[in-house]
Amino acid sequence: MSHRNAPLTPTGRLRLARCVVEDGWPLRLAAERFQVSHTTAARWAGRYRQLGMAGMHDRSSRPHHQPRRTAAAVEAQVVHLRREHRIGPLRLAARCGIAASTAHRILQRHGLPALAATDRATGEPVRRYERARPGELVHIDVKKLGRIPDGGGHKVLGRAAGSPNKDRRNGVGYAYLHTALDDHSRLAYTEDLPDEKAATCADFLTRAATWFAAQGITVERVLTDNAWAYTKTTWRDTCHKLGISPRWTRPWRPQTNGKVERFHRTLLEEWAYHRPYTSEAERQAAFPDWLDWYNYHRPHTGISGQTPASRITNLSGQHI
C-alpha cells in the first residue's frame, strides 16, 4: 500500500513508465514531469519493461533469506501444541523454549487466531453474525441474581457479616432478570420477575413483544436456550399467538445466544455490582435509569460505538 504522501500511486507509476518506455521520453524529463527523482523514474521504467502493469505495485519488504528464523520443527511443535491443548503464547513459549513474542508470531504466520476469538469446545474460530434488520431475531435469557437484604449485603457489611444472608431457606431469595435483546440493534428490554416458570416466561415474551412494537420493531424470531420453560407447550403457543417463530440453541452451546449473555455481564458490571446498595429496593430503583442509559446513550463497542437506539431508524425520541 502506497504511503499517503507518496508522489506516485500505481496509476501514476504506470503513466510515468509508459512515457519512458512507449513514448520515448528521456528519464530526466519524465522525472521532472512527475516530480520524482531520476532514480525513481528509472526504477519504475525498468519494472515496466520487465513485468508490465503487474510491476507497478509495491513489493513486500520481507527479506528473501532469513537465517535466524525459527526452525521449521519448532514452528510445527508450536502449532501442534496450540491445536492439541489450546494454550496461548506464554505457555507455548515455556514448553518450546522460545520467547513468547516468537510464539505469537508463529501463530500469526499460520493463521491461528487469539484464544479469545475461538470456541472453547472445538478451538475453531468463532463465527460472528448480525441480523440485517431490527426484530429479525431477538435473544431471550434469564439471569439469576441474589437479592440484597435490608441493611446491605457483604459489599456493605463485609464477608463475615453478610454471609448469613446466603442462607437459601432464610435468605431474601433471588431476582430473575428476564431479558429480550434485539440482535441487530442490541436494544434491550428487561424485567425483574419472581421465577422462571413457563407461564412467567411466556407472559414476559408478550410484554416484550409489545414494548418492541412501541419502538417500531416487529419481533419475527426469538432465540432461547433449552431451559425447561422454553421447551413447554406454553412457550410454543405464546410464540404462535404472537406470530413469532421460536428458535433454540444447540445443547451445550451458550455462545449461540452470546449477545444476551454479554448484555447480562454488562448489566452486572455497570448496575448490579457497580456500587454497594443498602437494599434490593435501592438497587431496583437505579435500574430504569441504567437501562435508559444503555439503550439511548451508552456507546456499544459491538456496533462500532453506536448506541442501540441509533440503529432503530424509525424510533421516535432518542432521549437526548
Summarize the structure.
The protein is an alpha/beta fold and 320 residues long. It has twelve helices and five strands. The chain has helices spanning 10-21, 27-33, 38-51, 72-85, 89-96, 100-109, 154-157, 159-162, 198-214, 233-242, 258-272, 280-296, and strands at residues 138-146, 174-182, 188-193, 221-224, 245-248.
How would you characterize this protein structure?
It is a single chain. The protein has 320 residues and is of the alpha/beta class. The chain folds into three domains: 10-56, no CATH class; 72-117; 138-311, 2-Layer Sandwich (Nucleotidyltransferase, domain 5). Helices cover 41% and strands 10% of the residues. It contains twelve helices and five strands. It has a five-stranded mixed beta sheet, sandwiched between helices. β4 (221-224), α10 and β5 form a beta-alpha-beta unit. The longest helix is centred in the middle third of the chain and has 17 residues, at 198-214. The two termini are 42 Å apart. The mean pLDDT is 87.
How is this fold's topology laid out?
Elements (H helix, E strand, L loop, with lengths): L9 H12 L5 H7 L4 H14 L20 H14 L3 H8 L3 H10 L28 E9 L7 H4 L1 H4 L11 E9 L5 E6 L4 H17 L6 E4 L8 H10 L2 E4 L9 H15 L7 H17 L24
Parallel strand pairs: 1-4, 4-5
Antiparallel strand pairs: 1-2, 2-3
Helix pairs in contact: 1-3, 2-3, 5-6, 9-10
